[in-house]
Amino acid sequence: MSSSILRTSRTKPVWSALARARFSSTAPKNTTLKERLAELIPVELENVKRVRAEHGKKAFGPVIVDQLYGGMRGLPALIWDGSVLDADEGIRFRGKTIPECQELLPKAPGGAEPLPEGLFWLLVTGEIPTQEQVTELSKDWAARSAIPEFVEEILDRCPPTLHPMSQFSLAVTALNHDSAFAKAYQDGVSKKEYWGPTFEDSMDLIAKLPNIAGRIYNNVFGKGKLAAIDPAKDYSHNLSTLLGFGDNTAFVELMRLYITIHSDHEGGNVSAHTGKLVGSALSDPFLAFAASLNGLAGPLHGLANQEVLLWLSKMQSKIGENASDEAVKEYVWATLKGGQVVPGYGHAVLRKTDPRYTAQREFALKHLPEDPLFKLVGQIYNIVPDILLEAGKAKNPWPNVDAHSGALLTHYGLTQMQFYTVLFGVSRAFGVTAQLIWDRALGAPLERPKSYSTAAIEKMFKDKS
Ligand SMILES: CC(=O)SCCNC(=O)CCNC(=O)[C@H](O)C(C)(C)COP(=O)(O)OP(=O)(O)OC[C@H]1O[C@@H](n2cnc3c(N)ncnc32)[C@H](O)[C@@H]1OP(=O)(O)O
Ligand SMILES: O=C([O-])CC(=O)C(=O)O
Protein backbone atom coordinates (compact mmCIF):
# COMPACT_ATOMS: atom_id res chain seq x y z
CA MET A 1 0.00 0.00 0.00
CA SER A 2 1.66 3.23 -1.11
CA SER A 3 1.72 6.15 1.29
CA SER A 4 0.40 8.45 -1.45
CA ILE A 5 -2.80 6.46 -1.46
CA LEU A 6 -3.01 6.75 2.30
CA ARG A 7 -2.52 10.51 2.06
CA THR A 8 -5.36 11.17 -0.41
CA SER A 9 -7.55 13.32 1.80
CA ARG A 10 -10.99 12.64 0.32
CA THR A 11 -10.58 8.88 0.49
CA LYS A 12 -8.36 8.71 3.54
CA PRO A 13 -10.73 7.02 5.98
CA VAL A 14 -11.61 4.31 3.47
CA TRP A 15 -8.08 3.68 2.26
CA SER A 16 -6.94 3.51 5.86
CA ALA A 17 -9.58 0.90 6.48
CA LEU A 18 -8.41 -1.07 3.49
CA ALA A 19 -4.80 -0.73 4.58
CA ARG A 20 -5.81 -2.15 7.95
CA ALA A 21 -7.66 -4.94 6.19
CA ARG A 22 -4.73 -5.76 3.96
CA PHE A 23 -2.47 -6.04 6.95
CA SER A 24 -5.10 -8.13 8.73
CA SER A 25 -5.58 -5.86 11.69
CA THR A 26 -8.63 -6.05 13.89
CA ALA A 27 -12.07 -5.23 12.57
CA PRO A 28 -13.67 -1.93 13.61
CA LYS A 29 -16.08 -2.54 16.49
CA ASN A 30 -19.87 -2.25 16.27
CA THR A 31 -20.16 -3.26 12.65
CA THR A 32 -21.72 -6.35 11.14
CA LEU A 33 -19.96 -8.43 8.52
CA LYS A 34 -22.30 -7.18 5.81
CA GLU A 35 -21.84 -3.53 6.82
CA ARG A 36 -18.08 -3.99 6.80
CA LEU A 37 -18.19 -5.60 3.36
CA ALA A 38 -20.25 -2.71 2.03
CA GLU A 39 -17.40 -0.40 3.15
CA LEU A 40 -14.61 -2.55 1.73
CA ILE A 41 -16.10 -3.38 -1.68
CA PRO A 42 -15.88 0.10 -3.28
CA VAL A 43 -12.29 0.38 -2.04
CA GLU A 44 -11.31 -2.95 -3.53
CA LEU A 45 -13.08 -2.12 -6.80
CA GLU A 46 -10.88 0.98 -7.07
CA ASN A 47 -7.83 -1.06 -6.13
CA VAL A 48 -8.47 -3.65 -8.85
CA LYS A 49 -9.15 -0.88 -11.37
CA ARG A 50 -5.80 0.69 -10.51
CA VAL A 51 -3.89 -2.61 -10.72
CA ARG A 52 -5.48 -3.40 -14.08
CA ALA A 53 -4.74 0.08 -15.42
CA GLU A 54 -1.10 -0.20 -14.34
CA HIS A 55 -0.41 -3.84 -15.15
CA GLY A 56 -3.31 -5.15 -17.23
CA LYS A 57 -1.37 -5.58 -20.45
CA LYS A 58 1.78 -7.06 -18.92
CA ALA A 59 2.75 -10.69 -19.60
CA PHE A 60 2.80 -12.98 -16.61
CA GLY A 61 5.30 -15.57 -17.89
CA PRO A 62 5.32 -18.24 -20.56
CA VAL A 63 2.67 -20.92 -20.97
CA ILE A 64 4.16 -24.23 -22.04
CA VAL A 65 2.39 -27.02 -23.87
CA ASP A 66 2.94 -29.45 -20.98
CA GLN A 67 0.72 -27.24 -18.81
CA LEU A 68 -2.19 -27.78 -21.20
CA TYR A 69 -1.75 -31.55 -21.00
CA GLY A 70 -0.68 -31.54 -17.36
CA GLY A 71 -3.71 -30.31 -15.47
CA MET A 72 -2.64 -26.65 -15.75
CA ARG A 73 -0.11 -26.98 -12.91
CA GLY A 74 1.37 -23.60 -12.11
CA LEU A 75 -0.63 -21.82 -14.80
CA PRO A 76 -1.39 -18.32 -13.51
CA ALA A 77 -5.10 -18.14 -14.19
CA LEU A 78 -7.12 -17.00 -11.20
CA ILE A 79 -7.45 -14.17 -8.70
CA TRP A 80 -8.40 -14.84 -5.06
CA ASP A 81 -7.25 -12.75 -2.10
CA GLY A 82 -8.71 -14.94 0.66
CA SER A 83 -5.84 -17.39 0.90
CA VAL A 84 -2.54 -18.01 -0.83
CA LEU A 85 -0.53 -21.24 -0.88
CA ASP A 86 3.24 -21.31 -0.71
CA ALA A 87 4.75 -24.59 -1.91
CA ASP A 88 7.08 -24.84 1.10
CA GLU A 89 5.28 -22.96 3.82
CA GLY A 90 1.68 -23.98 3.10
CA ILE A 91 -1.48 -21.96 3.39
CA ARG A 92 -1.97 -18.44 4.71
CA PHE A 93 -5.47 -17.11 5.24
CA ARG A 94 -5.34 -13.39 4.38
CA GLY A 95 -1.65 -13.45 5.17
CA LYS A 96 -1.97 -15.41 8.41
CA THR A 97 -0.43 -18.84 8.91
CA ILE A 98 -2.42 -21.52 10.73
CA PRO A 99 -0.53 -20.98 14.03
CA GLU A 100 -1.17 -17.23 13.71
CA CYS A 101 -4.89 -17.87 13.15
CA GLN A 102 -4.87 -20.17 16.18
CA GLU A 103 -3.36 -17.39 18.22
CA LEU A 104 -5.31 -14.40 16.94
CA LEU A 105 -8.85 -15.53 16.14
CA PRO A 106 -11.45 -15.44 18.92
CA LYS A 107 -12.05 -18.65 20.88
CA ALA A 108 -15.05 -20.10 22.66
CA PRO A 109 -15.08 -19.55 26.45
CA GLY A 110 -12.60 -22.07 27.84
CA GLY A 111 -11.56 -23.16 24.35
CA ALA A 112 -8.09 -23.06 22.80
CA GLU A 113 -8.89 -23.51 19.10
CA PRO A 114 -10.08 -20.70 16.82
CA LEU A 115 -13.78 -20.34 16.08
CA PRO A 116 -14.48 -20.85 12.35
CA GLU A 117 -16.86 -17.89 12.57
CA GLY A 118 -13.76 -15.72 13.02
CA LEU A 119 -11.99 -17.42 10.14
CA PHE A 120 -14.96 -16.63 7.87
CA TRP A 121 -14.81 -12.98 8.91
CA LEU A 122 -11.07 -12.99 8.22
CA LEU A 123 -11.51 -14.64 4.79
CA VAL A 124 -14.17 -12.13 3.79
CA THR A 125 -12.63 -8.90 5.14
CA GLY A 126 -8.96 -9.55 5.89
CA GLU A 127 -9.64 -8.47 9.48
CA ILE A 128 -9.61 -10.23 12.83
CA PRO A 129 -13.11 -9.82 14.30
CA THR A 130 -13.91 -9.05 17.89
CA GLN A 131 -15.34 -11.66 20.25
CA GLU A 132 -18.73 -9.92 19.99
CA GLN A 133 -18.71 -10.00 16.18
CA VAL A 134 -17.97 -13.71 16.24
CA THR A 135 -20.77 -14.31 18.76
CA GLU A 136 -23.16 -12.38 16.52
CA LEU A 137 -22.18 -14.61 13.57
CA SER A 138 -22.81 -17.74 15.67
CA LYS A 139 -26.26 -16.40 16.53
CA ASP A 140 -27.02 -15.35 12.98
CA TRP A 141 -26.08 -18.79 11.62
CA ALA A 142 -28.12 -20.54 14.31
CA ALA A 143 -31.12 -18.37 13.36
CA ARG A 144 -30.74 -19.32 9.67
CA SER A 145 -30.03 -23.01 10.30
CA ALA A 146 -33.38 -24.68 9.56
CA ILE A 147 -33.61 -26.55 6.27
CA PRO A 148 -36.86 -26.71 4.24
CA GLU A 149 -39.04 -29.75 4.88
CA PHE A 150 -38.74 -30.93 1.29
CA VAL A 151 -34.95 -31.02 1.65
CA GLU A 152 -35.34 -33.11 4.80
CA GLU A 153 -37.58 -35.43 2.79
CA ILE A 154 -35.04 -35.69 -0.03
CA LEU A 155 -32.43 -36.78 2.50
CA ASP A 156 -34.78 -39.15 4.29
CA ARG A 157 -35.59 -40.86 0.99
CA CYS A 158 -31.97 -41.44 0.02
CA PRO A 159 -30.96 -45.07 0.36
CA PRO A 160 -28.32 -45.44 3.09
CA THR A 161 -26.14 -47.00 0.40
CA LEU A 162 -25.97 -43.65 -1.44
CA HIS A 163 -22.62 -42.10 -0.54
CA PRO A 164 -22.97 -39.29 2.04
CA MET A 165 -21.25 -36.87 -0.36
CA SER A 166 -23.88 -37.55 -3.05
CA GLN A 167 -26.61 -36.93 -0.48
CA PHE A 168 -24.84 -33.75 0.62
CA SER A 169 -24.63 -32.46 -2.94
CA LEU A 170 -28.31 -33.29 -3.60
CA ALA A 171 -29.43 -31.37 -0.51
CA VAL A 172 -27.28 -28.33 -1.27
CA THR A 173 -28.52 -28.23 -4.87
CA ALA A 174 -32.11 -28.34 -3.60
CA LEU A 175 -31.49 -25.31 -1.33
CA ASN A 176 -31.40 -23.27 -4.53
CA HIS A 177 -35.24 -23.36 -4.28
CA ASP A 178 -35.00 -20.38 -1.88
CA SER A 179 -31.99 -18.62 -3.35
CA ALA A 180 -32.06 -14.86 -2.78
CA PHE A 181 -29.64 -14.41 -5.69
CA ALA A 182 -31.74 -16.44 -8.16
CA LYS A 183 -34.84 -14.48 -7.14
CA ALA A 184 -33.09 -11.12 -7.32
CA TYR A 185 -31.76 -12.01 -10.77
CA GLN A 186 -35.25 -12.88 -11.99
CA ASP A 187 -36.47 -9.60 -10.51
CA GLY A 188 -33.88 -7.72 -12.57
CA VAL A 189 -31.29 -6.83 -9.92
CA SER A 190 -28.50 -4.53 -11.14
CA LYS A 191 -25.01 -6.05 -11.57
CA LYS A 192 -23.76 -3.64 -8.92
CA GLU A 193 -26.04 -5.24 -6.35
CA TYR A 194 -25.16 -8.91 -7.05
CA TRP A 195 -23.03 -9.24 -3.95
CA GLY A 196 -25.89 -8.53 -1.50
CA PRO A 197 -28.09 -11.55 -2.31
CA THR A 198 -24.92 -13.63 -2.84
CA PHE A 199 -23.93 -12.73 0.72
CA GLU A 200 -27.38 -13.68 2.03
CA ASP A 201 -27.32 -17.03 0.20
CA SER A 202 -23.79 -17.69 1.46
CA MET A 203 -24.78 -17.03 5.05
CA ASP A 204 -27.85 -19.26 4.65
CA LEU A 205 -25.79 -22.00 3.03
CA ILE A 206 -23.15 -22.10 5.78
CA ALA A 207 -25.85 -21.90 8.44
CA LYS A 208 -27.79 -24.88 7.06
CA LEU A 209 -24.85 -27.25 6.65
CA PRO A 210 -24.88 -28.63 10.24
CA ASN A 211 -28.51 -29.64 9.83
CA ILE A 212 -27.79 -31.28 6.48
CA ALA A 213 -24.64 -33.05 7.69
CA GLY A 214 -26.35 -34.13 10.92
CA ARG A 215 -29.36 -35.51 9.07
CA ILE A 216 -27.18 -37.48 6.65
CA TYR A 217 -25.11 -38.90 9.50
CA ASN A 218 -28.22 -39.77 11.47
CA ASN A 219 -30.02 -41.37 8.53
CA VAL A 220 -27.06 -43.40 7.31
CA PHE A 221 -25.49 -44.42 10.58
CA GLY A 222 -28.66 -44.57 12.68
CA LYS A 223 -27.99 -42.59 15.83
CA GLY A 224 -31.66 -41.98 16.79
CA LYS A 225 -33.44 -38.63 16.98
CA LEU A 226 -31.64 -35.65 15.48
CA ALA A 227 -30.78 -32.97 18.08
CA ALA A 228 -31.74 -29.32 17.60
CA ILE A 229 -29.50 -26.30 17.00
CA ASP A 230 -28.88 -24.32 20.20
CA PRO A 231 -28.83 -20.57 19.43
CA ALA A 232 -26.53 -19.99 22.41
CA LYS A 233 -23.80 -22.29 21.06
CA ASP A 234 -21.15 -21.72 18.42
CA TYR A 235 -21.27 -23.31 14.97
CA SER A 236 -18.86 -26.17 15.70
CA HIS A 237 -20.58 -26.97 18.96
CA ASN A 238 -23.91 -27.24 17.15
CA LEU A 239 -22.41 -29.36 14.39
CA SER A 240 -20.89 -31.69 17.00
CA THR A 241 -24.24 -31.92 18.83
CA LEU A 242 -26.06 -32.86 15.62
CA LEU A 243 -23.52 -35.62 15.05
CA GLY A 244 -24.03 -36.86 18.62
CA PHE A 245 -20.70 -35.60 20.03
CA GLY A 246 -21.79 -32.29 21.58
CA ASP A 247 -20.98 -33.45 25.12
CA ASN A 248 -17.39 -34.22 24.23
CA THR A 249 -15.43 -30.99 24.79
CA ALA A 250 -12.33 -32.26 22.99
CA PHE A 251 -14.37 -33.30 19.93
CA VAL A 252 -16.00 -29.86 19.81
CA GLU A 253 -12.52 -28.30 19.94
CA LEU A 254 -11.42 -30.63 17.16
CA MET A 255 -14.35 -29.47 15.01
CA ARG A 256 -13.35 -25.83 15.57
CA LEU A 257 -9.83 -26.58 14.39
CA TYR A 258 -11.00 -28.89 11.60
CA ILE A 259 -13.43 -26.39 10.08
CA THR A 260 -10.90 -23.58 10.35
CA ILE A 261 -8.05 -25.39 8.61
CA HIS A 262 -10.04 -27.12 5.83
CA SER A 263 -11.87 -23.96 4.75
CA ASP A 264 -9.75 -22.64 1.91
CA HIS A 265 -6.61 -23.54 -0.02
CA GLU A 266 -6.19 -20.68 -2.47
CA GLY A 267 -8.27 -20.52 -5.65
CA GLY A 268 -7.00 -23.29 -7.89
CA ASN A 269 -7.89 -26.47 -6.00
CA VAL A 270 -10.70 -28.53 -7.53
CA SER A 271 -13.49 -27.56 -5.12
CA ALA A 272 -12.65 -23.85 -4.89
CA HIS A 273 -12.11 -23.49 -8.60
CA THR A 274 -15.26 -25.44 -9.46
CA GLY A 275 -17.35 -23.18 -7.22
CA LYS A 276 -15.84 -20.10 -8.83
CA LEU A 277 -16.33 -21.45 -12.35
CA VAL A 278 -19.97 -22.42 -11.82
CA GLY A 279 -20.62 -19.16 -9.97
CA SER A 280 -19.22 -17.26 -12.94
CA ALA A 281 -22.26 -18.34 -14.95
CA LEU A 282 -24.27 -16.55 -12.23
CA SER A 283 -25.49 -19.87 -10.90
CA ASP A 284 -26.41 -19.05 -7.30
CA PRO A 285 -24.17 -20.04 -4.34
CA PHE A 286 -26.14 -23.24 -3.67
CA LEU A 287 -25.66 -24.50 -7.23
CA ALA A 288 -22.05 -23.36 -7.30
CA PHE A 289 -21.19 -24.98 -3.98
CA ALA A 290 -22.98 -28.23 -4.87
CA ALA A 291 -20.62 -28.39 -7.86
CA SER A 292 -17.68 -27.81 -5.49
CA LEU A 293 -18.86 -30.72 -3.39
CA ASN A 294 -18.97 -33.01 -6.40
CA GLY A 295 -15.31 -32.18 -7.01
CA LEU A 296 -14.43 -32.58 -3.35
CA ALA A 297 -15.97 -36.06 -3.50
CA GLY A 298 -13.16 -37.31 -5.77
CA PRO A 299 -10.49 -39.59 -4.23
CA LEU A 300 -7.61 -37.41 -5.41
CA HIS A 301 -9.16 -34.43 -3.59
CA GLY A 302 -11.36 -34.40 -0.46
CA LEU A 303 -12.33 -38.06 -0.52
CA ALA A 304 -8.69 -38.85 0.23
CA ASN A 305 -9.52 -38.54 3.96
CA GLN A 306 -11.87 -41.52 3.58
CA GLU A 307 -9.32 -43.33 1.43
CA VAL A 308 -6.61 -42.90 4.06
CA LEU A 309 -8.72 -44.59 6.71
CA LEU A 310 -9.71 -47.38 4.32
CA TRP A 311 -6.06 -47.91 3.41
CA LEU A 312 -5.02 -47.92 7.08
CA SER A 313 -7.79 -50.39 7.98
CA LYS A 314 -6.79 -52.70 5.15
CA MET A 315 -3.18 -52.41 6.25
CA GLN A 316 -4.09 -53.35 9.81
CA SER A 317 -6.13 -56.34 8.72
CA LYS A 318 -3.31 -57.53 6.45
CA ILE A 319 -0.25 -56.99 8.66
CA GLY A 320 -1.91 -56.59 12.05
CA GLU A 321 -1.80 -53.78 14.59
CA ASN A 322 1.63 -52.78 15.98
CA ALA A 323 3.24 -54.02 12.75
CA SER A 324 6.98 -53.62 12.26
CA ASP A 325 8.43 -50.90 10.03
CA GLU A 326 9.47 -53.63 7.59
CA ALA A 327 5.90 -54.91 7.28
CA VAL A 328 4.57 -51.36 6.77
CA LYS A 329 7.21 -50.70 4.09
CA GLU A 330 6.21 -53.85 2.26
CA TYR A 331 2.56 -52.81 2.38
CA VAL A 332 3.36 -49.33 0.99
CA TRP A 333 5.40 -50.83 -1.84
CA ALA A 334 2.58 -53.26 -2.62
CA THR A 335 0.21 -50.27 -2.92
CA LEU A 336 2.54 -48.57 -5.39
CA LYS A 337 3.26 -51.76 -7.35
CA GLY A 338 -0.50 -52.31 -7.61
CA GLY A 339 -0.68 -49.02 -9.55
CA GLN A 340 -2.44 -47.19 -6.72
CA VAL A 341 -1.57 -43.94 -4.98
CA VAL A 342 -0.68 -43.74 -1.30
CA PRO A 343 -3.66 -41.71 -0.06
CA GLY A 344 -2.89 -38.65 2.05
CA TYR A 345 0.55 -38.18 0.49
CA GLY A 346 1.62 -35.88 -2.32
CA HIS A 347 0.14 -32.60 -3.43
CA ALA A 348 -0.34 -30.61 -6.62
CA VAL A 349 1.32 -27.50 -5.15
CA LEU A 350 2.82 -28.25 -1.73
CA ARG A 351 6.39 -29.53 -1.59
CA LYS A 352 6.72 -29.92 2.19
CA THR A 353 4.60 -31.36 4.99
CA ASP A 354 1.19 -29.68 4.92
CA PRO A 355 0.86 -27.32 7.93
CA ARG A 356 -2.72 -28.59 8.25
CA TYR A 357 -1.21 -32.05 8.91
CA THR A 358 1.10 -30.49 11.50
CA ALA A 359 -1.77 -28.65 13.22
CA GLN A 360 -3.69 -31.91 13.53
CA ARG A 361 -0.60 -33.74 14.76
CA GLU A 362 -0.16 -31.12 17.46
CA PHE A 363 -3.80 -31.48 18.44
CA ALA A 364 -3.26 -35.25 18.73
CA LEU A 365 -0.09 -34.83 20.79
CA LYS A 366 -2.08 -32.65 23.19
CA HIS A 367 -5.30 -34.67 23.38
CA LEU A 368 -4.58 -38.28 22.37
CA PRO A 369 -0.84 -38.98 22.42
CA GLU A 370 -1.26 -42.67 23.19
CA ASP A 371 -3.90 -43.42 20.55
CA PRO A 372 -2.78 -46.47 18.51
CA LEU A 373 -4.07 -45.11 15.18
CA PHE A 374 -2.30 -41.80 15.81
CA LYS A 375 0.87 -43.77 16.43
CA LEU A 376 0.39 -45.64 13.16
CA VAL A 377 -0.10 -42.33 11.31
CA GLY A 378 3.21 -41.19 12.85
CA GLN A 379 4.95 -44.45 11.93
CA ILE A 380 3.78 -44.05 8.32
CA TYR A 381 5.11 -40.48 8.27
CA ASN A 382 8.54 -41.89 9.00
CA ILE A 383 8.28 -44.46 6.22
CA VAL A 384 6.25 -43.22 3.23
CA PRO A 385 8.26 -40.14 2.12
CA ASP A 386 11.45 -42.19 1.61
CA ILE A 387 9.55 -44.77 -0.38
CA LEU A 388 7.85 -42.18 -2.58
CA LEU A 389 11.25 -40.56 -3.16
CA GLU A 390 12.75 -43.93 -4.06
CA ALA A 391 9.82 -44.72 -6.37
CA GLY A 392 10.75 -41.44 -8.05
CA LYS A 393 7.44 -40.23 -9.43
CA ALA A 394 5.65 -38.09 -6.88
CA LYS A 395 6.92 -34.50 -6.86
CA ASN A 396 5.95 -34.16 -3.21
CA PRO A 397 6.57 -37.17 -0.94
CA TRP A 398 5.14 -35.46 2.17
CA PRO A 399 1.72 -35.86 3.81
CA ASN A 400 -1.23 -33.58 3.11
CA VAL A 401 -4.16 -32.67 5.36
CA ASP A 402 -6.05 -35.90 4.64
CA ALA A 403 -3.30 -38.13 6.03
CA HIS A 404 -4.26 -37.14 9.56
CA SER A 405 -7.89 -36.14 9.93
CA GLY A 406 -9.48 -39.61 9.98
CA ALA A 407 -7.31 -40.82 12.87
CA LEU A 408 -8.55 -37.93 15.04
CA LEU A 409 -12.21 -38.51 14.17
CA THR A 410 -11.83 -42.24 14.78
CA HIS A 411 -10.36 -41.59 18.22
CA TYR A 412 -13.55 -39.84 19.33
CA GLY A 413 -15.81 -42.55 17.90
CA LEU A 414 -16.66 -41.01 14.54
CA THR A 415 -15.54 -44.16 12.80
CA GLN A 416 -17.74 -44.00 9.69
CA MET A 417 -15.11 -43.04 7.17
CA GLN A 418 -17.62 -42.55 4.32
CA PHE A 419 -18.78 -39.50 6.25
CA TYR A 420 -15.40 -37.80 6.60
CA THR A 421 -15.54 -35.82 3.36
CA VAL A 422 -18.89 -34.33 4.41
CA LEU A 423 -17.06 -32.59 7.27
CA PHE A 424 -14.45 -31.38 4.80
CA GLY A 425 -17.32 -30.06 2.67
CA VAL A 426 -18.89 -28.17 5.58
CA SER A 427 -15.58 -26.41 6.06
CA ARG A 428 -14.89 -25.79 2.37
CA ALA A 429 -18.18 -23.85 2.14
CA PHE A 430 -16.49 -21.07 4.12
CA GLY A 431 -13.81 -20.51 1.49
CA VAL A 432 -15.99 -21.08 -1.57
CA THR A 433 -18.71 -18.67 -0.42
CA ALA A 434 -16.19 -16.00 0.63
CA GLN A 435 -14.84 -16.19 -2.90
CA LEU A 436 -18.30 -16.10 -4.51
CA ILE A 437 -19.20 -12.96 -2.55
CA TRP A 438 -16.06 -11.18 -3.75
CA ASP A 439 -16.42 -12.44 -7.31
CA ARG A 440 -19.90 -10.96 -7.55
CA ALA A 441 -18.78 -7.77 -5.76
CA LEU A 442 -15.89 -7.26 -8.17
CA GLY A 443 -17.97 -8.17 -11.24
CA ALA A 444 -15.90 -11.26 -12.11
CA PRO A 445 -16.85 -12.29 -15.65
CA LEU A 446 -17.94 -15.64 -17.05
CA GLU A 447 -14.97 -18.02 -17.07
CA ARG A 448 -14.19 -19.32 -20.51
CA PRO A 449 -10.57 -20.33 -21.21
CA LYS A 450 -9.45 -21.47 -24.67
CA SER A 451 -8.99 -25.15 -25.44
CA TYR A 452 -6.79 -26.51 -28.23
CA SER A 453 -6.70 -29.74 -30.19
CA THR A 454 -3.49 -31.79 -30.35
CA ALA A 455 -3.50 -31.20 -34.12
CA ALA A 456 -3.55 -27.43 -33.49
CA ILE A 457 -0.57 -27.71 -31.13
CA GLU A 458 1.37 -29.71 -33.72
CA LYS A 459 0.53 -27.22 -36.46
CA MET A 460 1.49 -24.26 -34.28
CA PHE A 461 5.03 -25.56 -33.78
CA LYS A 462 5.51 -27.37 -37.11
CA ASP A 463 7.95 -25.00 -38.68
CA LYS A 464 9.44 -23.69 -35.44
CA SER A 465 11.31 -26.70 -34.06
C1 LIG B 1 -7.34 -31.87 0.14
C2 LIG B 1 -6.58 -32.41 -0.98
O1 LIG B 1 -7.06 -32.44 -2.08
S1 LIG B 1 -5.00 -32.88 -0.69
C3 LIG B 1 -4.69 -34.20 -1.86
C4 LIG B 1 -5.47 -35.42 -1.48
N1 LIG B 1 -5.19 -36.54 -2.41
C5 LIG B 1 -4.40 -37.59 -2.05
O2 LIG B 1 -3.87 -37.64 -0.95
C6 LIG B 1 -4.26 -38.69 -3.07
C7 LIG B 1 -2.80 -39.13 -3.20
N2 LIG B 1 -2.02 -38.12 -3.88
C8 LIG B 1 -2.08 -37.95 -5.25
O3 LIG B 1 -2.72 -38.69 -5.98
C9 LIG B 1 -1.32 -36.79 -5.86
O4 LIG B 1 -0.19 -36.48 -5.07
C10 LIG B 1 -2.19 -35.54 -6.06
C11 LIG B 1 -3.43 -35.86 -6.87
C12 LIG B 1 -2.62 -34.96 -4.72
C13 LIG B 1 -1.38 -34.47 -6.80
O5 LIG B 1 -1.21 -34.92 -8.12
P1 LIG B 1 -0.08 -34.35 -9.05
O6 LIG B 1 0.06 -32.88 -8.91
O7 LIG B 1 -0.34 -34.86 -10.42
O8 LIG B 1 1.21 -35.04 -8.41
P2 LIG B 1 2.65 -35.29 -9.06
O9 LIG B 1 2.98 -34.27 -10.10
O10 LIG B 1 3.58 -35.45 -7.94
O11 LIG B 1 2.42 -36.68 -9.81
C14 LIG B 1 3.47 -37.30 -10.53
C15 LIG B 1 3.27 -38.80 -10.46
O12 LIG B 1 3.44 -39.22 -9.10
C16 LIG B 1 2.32 -39.94 -8.69
N3 LIG B 1 2.01 -39.66 -7.31
C17 LIG B 1 1.76 -38.46 -6.72
N4 LIG B 1 1.41 -38.64 -5.44
C18 LIG B 1 1.44 -39.98 -5.21
C19 LIG B 1 1.11 -40.78 -4.10
N5 LIG B 1 0.68 -40.26 -2.95
N6 LIG B 1 1.23 -42.12 -4.23
C20 LIG B 1 1.64 -42.65 -5.39
N7 LIG B 1 1.92 -41.94 -6.47
C21 LIG B 1 1.81 -40.62 -6.39
C22 LIG B 1 1.19 -39.42 -9.57
O13 LIG B 1 0.09 -40.32 -9.58
C23 LIG B 1 1.89 -39.26 -10.88
O14 LIG B 1 1.99 -40.53 -11.48
P3 LIG B 1 1.89 -40.72 -13.09
O15 LIG B 1 3.07 -39.99 -13.63
O16 LIG B 1 1.94 -42.18 -13.26
O17 LIG B 1 0.60 -40.10 -13.51
O1 LIG C 1 -4.81 -27.32 -2.92
C1 LIG C 1 -5.19 -28.38 -3.46
O2 LIG C 1 -5.04 -28.63 -4.68
C2 LIG C 1 -5.84 -29.44 -2.66
C3 LIG C 1 -5.97 -29.13 -1.22
O3 LIG C 1 -5.09 -29.37 -0.43
C4 LIG C 1 -7.19 -28.45 -0.79
O4 LIG C 1 -8.01 -28.07 -1.64
O5 LIG C 1 -7.39 -28.29 0.42
UniProtKB/TrEMBL annotation:
Superkingdom classification of source: Eukaryota
Record-linked SUPFAM superfamilies: Citrate synthase
GO CC entries: mitochondrial matrix
GO molecular function: acyltransferase activity, acyl groups converted into alkyl on transfer
Pfam short name (any one): Citrate_synt
PROSITE patterns per the UniProt record, alphabetical: CITRATE_SYNTHASE
Active site: 301, 347, 402
Keywords: Transferase
GO biological process: carbohydrate metabolic process; citrate metabolic process; tricarboxylic acid cycle
PANTHER family reported for this sequence: CITRATE SYNTHASE, CITRATE SYNTHASE, MITOCHONDRIAL
Family note: Belongs to the citrate synthase family.
UniProt-recorded name of the protein: Citrate synthase
